Amino acid sequence: MNGESLEIGKIRVTGADRTNHALLVELFDPLFQCKSVSEINEAISNIDGQMQAFEITKKPLSVSLEFSSSNRGPKVPVNLVVAVDEKSLTAKTGTEWRHNEITMWIKGSFSHIFSFGSVERTLSAPVITEDAISSFKSSIGYLFKYDTRNDPLLPSYGKYFHASSECSLLDQHSGLTVKNELSSQFHFPILSLGGCFGLIFPSHVPQNTLSFIDDKFFLGGPTSVRLFPLRSLGPQITMPEPPGKISTGGDLSAAFGVSFSFPIVSDLESIVRGHIWTNFGHLSNYHWRGENLSGISFGSGIIFKIFNIARLEANFGWRFTADKRESLSSSFVGPSLGISTEFL
Question: Is 1 among the domain residues?
């Protein structure tokens, strides 16, 4: 290099699909301080030793330098390409970053599932008179998933798409019924957006009857519209014994969520984070003249990742409900707790 000083502009790492992104940044970021080939070789040797100590790689790192012929100045601009031969490698991914600017992409995973099932349905405590009838249902279903999230429990980037459709072929209660569900998530370093939609197409709509309650959608609870009691939103009826109101589900469903997350302890941000969120949910039926509640809530809380099994949320905040007359009522809700693998 005739004694010229190098300036590393960009580092690209390939093959490290299973390695934590934050760990890669911590390992390779010191390379930006290297000013010569010998310093780069020494730094790569140190990184290689650490990755082998963590049992990440099977073979030594392979490094190549890309020189740019433009913008030649006192320092020679150079890019590094590092190939990682990772253990249990199953997918091709890449990580690329500039100093103080980090991006990452992962090839998304697709799944297609077809199903067929038959079930006999009986309600021992009928909510609606028609639902007290026992019925036999046979159905075929299709499920499609697309997932590029870096972590399904505590994602900081990526997308998730879920679509399903179930067609009831031999339903003694409601005839031919098609139930469709669609949900999506978009995750960024501090912002997460999510939504889910549901629609039932019963063949009996012109007869002014209701679909079977087991086929309906329900909203409310710590994993859907936070701070609301479980399955409390949507069409409701008043029960004489015991006295009170219960939700009967809906044929049309929509729910949205927005969350801003932030680390509480920088060293533990991959397992513990805080968040500020808001949720909205609405359920309705094709034919319904009773009480119908929609809900919106907002608040803050703490998210815990329990190993790689589930996600635990502790939240508190406010909730608002709107009835059919569009009048609003609100109440403060204390701490609520939820544990699941999927949250709105």
Answer: no
In whole angstroms, what is the distance from residue 121 CA to residue 249 CA? 16
Nearest-CA neighbor of 50 among 30, 74, 77? 30
Confirm whether 122 is domain-assigned: yes
Strands 101-106 and 109-121: unpaired
Confidence of residue 183 (pLDDT cuts 50, 70, 90): very high
In the sheet with 62-67, reading across from the earlier edge strand, the strands are: 62-67, 75-83, 5-14, 93-98, 101-106
Q: Whole-model pTM? A: 0.63
Q: What is the CATH number of the domain that holds 14?
A: 3.10.20
Q: Which of 121, 95, 100, 134 is nearest to 16 (CA)?
A: 95
Tokens of 185: 């998530």
16, 24 Cβ separation under 8 angstroms: yes
The gap between the terminal CA atoms of the chain, to the nearest Å, is: 55
Strands (E), the chain: 5-14, 62-67, 75-83, 93-98, 101-106, 109-121, 135-147, 158-168, 177-187, 191-202, 234-239, 244-247, 252-263, 272-284, 291-306, 310-322, 328-340
239 & 154 share domain: yes
Q: Are 29 and 10 in contact (CB under 8 A)?
A: no
Write out the DSSP string of 241-301.
Answer: TTTEEEE--BSEEEEEEEEEEEESSGGGTTTEEEEEEEEEEEEE-SS--SEEEEEEEEEEE
Q: What range does the domain containing 49 cover? A: 7-83
Residues 228 and 300 in one domain: yes
Q: H/E element holding 23? A: helix 21-28
Tell me, yes or no, whether 2 lies in a domain: no
Q: Quick one: which of 28, 122, 116, 113 has its CA closest to 79?
A: 28
**Dist CA 321 CA 225 (whole Å):** 11
pLDDT tens, 211-258?
Answer: 677 778 999 888 889 988 888 888 877 766 666 777 778 889 999 999
